[in-house]
């Protein structure tokens, strides 16, 4: 769900969904630099720094949700093609990550982060092996192995950023 907020000048602007944990934390007393956030026809006053944190969380959440969804799809199709149980376990981990993101569940996102660490280590080790035995592999493999490791490290960084952005 999308949230609308009114800035101090009275302008209504588009915000974030009402499940965002920063929306659920209420300030005890009004703060000088505050916003009025409208959530499900209820008005909540919050300071600008908390609203900015909520916007940052929403942006990185969108990226990680997309990554987890693609990760699930690729792992599931890999399982269907090869019947390797590793791909089924990886698809399950991706599903845990996706569920954690849409529910803002810090525990599920931590499990997905552990999965991302394991994937990153594995892809880095494969890249090192391929590059150290470069005479045995074709040029596309020599290019793709480090590229996939880099993409995996980028995915790990996004999940870690989301995990750290969630309130404890």
Stretches where pLDDT falls below 50 for ≥5 residues? none
**Structural domain tally:** 2
Secondary structure tally: strands: 4
Instruction: Write down the secondary-structure element order.
Output: EEHEEHHHH
Shape: elongated
Radius of gyration: 21 Å
Give the neighbour order of strands across the main sheet.
2-1-3-4
Provide the residue-averaged pLDDT.
Answer: 87
| Major sheet size, sense and barrel closure | 4 strands, antiparallel
Question: Which structural class do you get from the secondary structure elements?
Answer: alpha+beta
Structure annotation, total helices = 5
- Portion of residues in helices? 55-70%
> How far apart are the first and last residues' alpha carbons, in Å?
23 Å
β-sheet strand percentage: 5-15%
Helix-strand blueprint:
Layout: E1 4-6, E2 12-14, H1 21-24, E3 34-39, E4 42-47, H2 48-82, H3 85-103, H4 106-132, H5 139-165
Helix pairs in contact: 2-3, 2-5, 3-4, 4-5
Structural account:
The chain is α+β, with helices and mostly antiparallel strands and 168 residues long. The chain folds into 2 domains: 4-53, no CATH class; 60-165. Helix content is 67%, strand content 11%. It is built from 5 helices and 4 strands, in the order ββαββαααα. The protein has helices at residues 21-24, 48-82, 85-103, 106-132, 139-165; strands at 4-6, 12-14, 34-39, 42-47. A 4-stranded antiparallel β-sheet has the order 2-1-3-4. Helix 2 runs antiparallel to helix 3. The mean pLDDT is 87.
């Amino acid at each position: 769900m999308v949230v609308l907020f009114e800035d101090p000048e009275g302008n209504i602007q588009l915000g974030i969904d009402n499940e965002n944990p920063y929306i659920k934390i209420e300030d005890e007393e009004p703060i000088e630099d505050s916003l009025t956030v409208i959530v499900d026809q209820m008005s909540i006053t919050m300071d600008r720094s908390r609203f900015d944190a909520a916007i940052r969380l929403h942006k990185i959440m969108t990226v990680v949700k997309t990554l987890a969804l693609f990760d699930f799809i690729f792992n599931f199709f890999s399982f269907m093609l090869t019947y390797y149980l590793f791909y089924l376990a990886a698809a399950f981990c991706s599903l845990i990550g996706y569920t954690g993101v849409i529910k803002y569940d810090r525990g599920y996102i931590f499990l997905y982060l552990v999965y991302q660490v394991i994937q990153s280590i594995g892809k880095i080790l494969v890249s090192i092996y391929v590059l150290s035995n470069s005479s045995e592999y074709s040029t596309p493999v020599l290019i793709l192995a480090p590229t996939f490791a880099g993409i995996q490290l980028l995915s790990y960084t996004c999940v870690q950023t989301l995990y750290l952005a969630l309130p404890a």
